[in-house]
Design brief:
By secondary structure, this protein is of the alpha/beta class. The protein is built from 20 helices and nine strands. A five-stranded parallel β-sheet has the order 4-2-1-5-6, with helices on one face. The structure holds flavin-adenine dinucleotide (FAD) and iron/sulfur cluster. The site of flavin-adenine dinucleotide has 27 residues, from helix 9, helix 11, helix 14 and helix 16.
Length: 510
């Protein structure tokens, strides 16, 4: 039967069972489309990375003998809407059956279901064979439970997939080494240079520009550094194991202005585009650990494995459990506008200047920059979660809605009212000072709350707590913070709030 099989830009899984056999009746459809470049404003590196990875993937499929109909963004006659494109090809090529892999985004899932209803031929959707857990596994696991604790899901996943366990018990008797993973980086061990791929991407940039696609951020056209093939993705895992794993856990939460990536793996794009699977990554890390136990501690390995088997799978489960309502949530009722410096990095606050500038130049910031610098500020400044979400979805190379939204709207902005995080991730400047070297060079003084040069985080923090205290009244994990707020002298609180309000009024000048 002549079959059309759709491959989305983040379904670049060469190991998928679809490709086990070459069948001349199968046509694979891949398309660079305006509906994908335009649903949010993307960082230019993100658009380049997806198009390049898709093109490489299509070439690899063709080398294996598969038939691929590939539509480049520069092919002027291609319909830029998925429905039109599929209907057109089905008619033109006399297609008798249409198949697709389950998309990870709700938007595309709905669109494909609607397209299938319009087609008068048989259709079929199958698993993308990428994740450990199925779409609904988290919802089933937590059925009837009030709290969806990541830690319980993570332990179940470890046991189910036999990862770092002996029988039903964790290796070395501990499930979680998070307490070992909170060090500040003070230049005590050298950070290896990142693995460079040195690709020239001038042509693809020119194609994107010729189509007038609106992008932002910068790109080094002659030295593009993200993995865009399975081979490069595998090189990145090897590099991570050999050079970065040894200190990954220790400095996982560190913030440091002297290095962009610290000991982080930069594997998120390779995984989110499915060039490599989470199981391949976890297996590679554990196998390296078993071969190098004299130099690598279990705490480093567990810290990494938790991010993938735990957080990544958990976040995806939350997305599918809570969509479509999740995307509208604004539990803390925050309505302020995103300041312009999110698009320029031009602010005197060193922590934000560094983290935003790096996001704009690299399409990357590591977890604590995303959570405790940019996210923390956004929440304390009570920015609208829709605006924060759109910024995060556009700026990061790895941002696809299923993973971006529960992290941003949920973990970081508490807009889901506590589904992902048991308390809001907010702090005054002292946390940033403790974990980073940012404050020493800042225009503002991290120790001050009220003066002209007081660190804005300090007054915003207390103002935020005071504004939202009614929402957190029954939250046990907030009781200590609220008790401190209550103890504050009324005149001190009034002055702090006045300062915070004046900061919010002149937010563009910070
Ligand atoms: P490493 O620090 O080396 O971690 C290894 C891997 O663990 C990552 O590649 C990633 O696949 C996984 N991981 C770690 N934490 C998480 C998490 N919280 N959720 C899901 N996976 C996780 N990650 C994305 O992939 N896409 C996003 O759009 C995204 N948006 C985020 C927004 C906010 C506000 C926050 C706080 C986090 C976000 N994350 C997102 C999670 C995390 O910050 C990135 O996965 C990580 O920074 C990617 O860099 P890395 O590959 O070097 O990660
Ligand atoms: Fe950020 Fe405040 Fe430190 Fe400046 S002083 S870097 S604004 S935390």
């Amino acid at each position: 039967m002549k079959t059309l099989r759709l491959l989305l830009g983040d379904q670049l899984n060469l190991q998928h069972s679809w490709f086990d056999e070459v069948n001349p009746n199968m046509i694979y459809l891949m398309a660079e489309m305006r509906q994908e470049t335009d649903y949010v404003k993307h960082h230019v590196q993100k658009v380049v990375a997806f198009f390049l990875a898709m093109r490489t993937f299509s070439d690899e499929l063709m080398e294996k003998g598969h038939q691929v109909n590939y539509y480049k963004i520069s092919d002027s006659n291609t319909p830029q809407d998925l429905e039109k494109l599929i209907l057109e090809i089905v008619a033109k090529e006399n297609i008798e059956c249409f198949e697709y892999q389950f998309p990870d985004e709700y938007r595309l899932d709905e669109q494909l279901k609607a397209i299938c209803e319009k087609l008068s031929i048989p259709t079929k959707a199958i698993d993308s064979e990428h994740f450990y857990a199925s779409r609904n596994e988290l919802a089933d696991f937590f059925k009837g439970k009030k709290q969806l604790l990541m830690e319980s899901f993570y332990r179940m996943m470890r046991k189910k997939h036999h990862v770092l366990v002996i029988g039903d018990q964790p290796l070395d008797g501990k499930w979680n080494f998070d307490h070992n993973n909170r060090n500040k980086y003070k230049n005590e061990v050298p950070i290896p240079f990142p693995l460079d791929f040195h690709k020239n991407v001038s042509e693809i940039i020119a194609e994107i520009e010729a189509q007038n696609i609106t992008t932002f951020g910068s790109i080094d056209a002659e030295n593009f550094n993200w993995p865009t093939s399975r081979t490069e993705s595998l090189q990145l895992i090897d590099y991570f194991c050999a050079n970065l794993l040894v200190h990954f856990g220790t400095y996982q939460d560190a913030l440091f202005s002297g290095h962009k990536f610290l000991f982080h793996s930069r594997l998120s794009f390779a995984m989110n585009s499915k060039m490599i699977s989470p199981k391949e990554v976890v297996d590679a890390v554990i196998s390296y650990y078993y071969q190098h136990q004299e130099t690598i501690e279990l705490a480093q390995v567990e810290g990494f494995v938790r991010q993938i088997i735990g957080w990544r799978e958990y976040i995806r489960g939350i997305y599918w459990k809570e969509m479509p309502n999740y995307g509208k949530m604004n539990a803390l009722e925050n309505y302020n506008k995103l300041p312009e410096f999110f698009w320029t990095g031009k602010t005197k606050m060193k922590c934000l200047q560094h983290s935003i500038t790096q996001s704009l130049s690299e399409a990357y910031a590591h977890h604590i920059q995303r959570l405790m610098v940019i996210g923390n500020f956004s929440l304390l400044a009570q920015l609208h979660p829709n605006e924060v979400d759109a910024w995060y979805l556009g700026v990061y190379i790895d941002a696809i809605e299923w993973v971006e939204m529960p992290n941003t709207r949920g973990m970081s902005q508490y807009a889901d009212g506590g589904i992902v995080a048991t308390k809001p991730y907010v702090s005054s400047g002292s946390y940033i000072n403790k974990m980073s070297n940012y404050c020493g060079n800042c225009h503002y003084n991290v120790k001050e709350k009220l003066g002209e040069k007081a660190c804005p985080f300090n007054s915003l923090y207390w103002h935020f707590l005071d504004e939202k205290k009614h929402i957190f009244a029954n939250n046990q994990r907030m009781s200590m913070m609220l008790a401190l707020l209550k103890k504050m002298k009324p005149e001190e609180l009034a002055a702090t709030k006045e300062k915070a309000i004046s900061i919010l009024e002149k937010i563009e000048t910070l």
